[in-house]
Amino acid sequence: MQFPNYLLIKMKFVIISVFAICIIKIFLKIMPLESAIMKVRKISNILLISSESEIPIERMHKWYLKLCSAFKIKSCLTKSLSQKIVFSNFGFNFLVICGVRFDKEANLKGHAWLSYKDEIIFEKNEDIKKYTESFRV
Hints:
Structural class: alpha+beta
Radius of gyration: 15 Å
Order of helices and strands: HHHHEEEHE
Strand order of the largest sheet: 3-2-1-4
Shape: globular
């Protein structure tokens, strides 16, 4: 019996996602942020393939969100960095953008989000406009 291509792609996606989430959590615990970022860039460049997946990016993102829910991942930085690695293996060269803003109580808040082909993805543009960009990965 042969699995449909869709099922194989989903299994590959889940395996790579679990790896990426675990490795990012480890990187962020054991090394400075700058070193973790360098490692993410290197890994995603190694995994980057030239053609985009036949599965729609939105569907794969839903799979990713289910995994994050199962693993109780709440950090936008962990999510964004791991998605950069995961999606590179499916032909999507995401850019992680990090920014800061002050909330109503004047507390500094940070956020990380993804961009693809110069478009913010998976987030509302009006929410992101509140942040001042600090760096890109």
